[in-house]
Amino acid sequence: MRSESEVFAESAAMMADAIGAKLDRVTFDVTFTAATADTDLGFMKIPAGTVGSVYGYHRGWQGDRNVVSVGFNWTMGNHVVPPKPLEHGHVIQVFGLPNMRTVLHCLPPKDWTEPGFMGLGMIYTAMPVTNAVPAVVAAKPGIVTLADLPPVTGRVAR
Questions:
Q1: Are residues 79 and 124 in the same domain?
Q2: In this protein, which residues make up the domain named 2,4-diaminopentanoate dehydrogenase C-terminal (predicted)?
Q3: Does residue 114 share a domain with residue 98?
Q4: Helix (H) or strand (E) segment spanning residue 123
Q5: 36 and 18, same structural domain?
């Protein structure tokens, strides 16, 4: 599971770099829960008792201090109790004085007909990459990260 979610470890390292934190190590912890009933997703079947959800974190450390964390809470189907309640979006937390917490919810438009949010999730997963194309094309040659690019934003549909 760690290798399948390694992109989140890269995100943690990039965030650490952006705030000037030099990491000693990045760790990974994960919790799985089982499907409570058989589920047919159309493209795959999940038998009861097999993995139905996964909750994991890639954590960047300086000594014994966790300075950046990137986590995920994924479920497959409706017959599962996730390790932590789903937020259906992105939770951003900053621990300090004061502590800050923001939840960015991904909500469908009023005319959304697909049951669940899977298609919507695919769209918002692709948005940063597709919206970054103009900035990447205009960037100097070599390897660049989001920290090297101007803010990546969407545009109003025409």
A1: no
A2: 8-151
A3: no
A4: helix 118-138
A5: yes
Structural tokens at position 12: 């943690």
CA distance 104 to 101: 10
Tell if the pTM clears 0.90, that is, is over it.
Answer: no
What's the token pair of residue 154? 């969407």
Q: Do the beta carbons of residue 68 and residue 16 sit within 8 Å? A: yes
Residues of the domain holding 11: 3-105
* AA identity, residue 101: R
**100 and 128 housed in the same domain:** no
Least reliable range by pLDDT among 23-27, 60-64, 73-77: 73-77
User: C-alpha dihedral over 14, 31, 106, 158, to 10 degrees?
Assistant: 50
Residue 116 tokens, joined: 């669940």
- Does residue 119 sit in the same domain as residue 62? no
Per-residue model confidence as pLDDT tens digits over 1-59: 777 787 888 889 988 998 899 999 999 999 999 999 999 988 999 999 999 999 999 99
What are 102-135's pLDDT values in tens digits? 888 888 889 998 876 778 878 888 888 888 899 9
In angstroms, how far is the first alpha carbon of the chain from the final one? 40
- Report CA Rg, the chain: 18
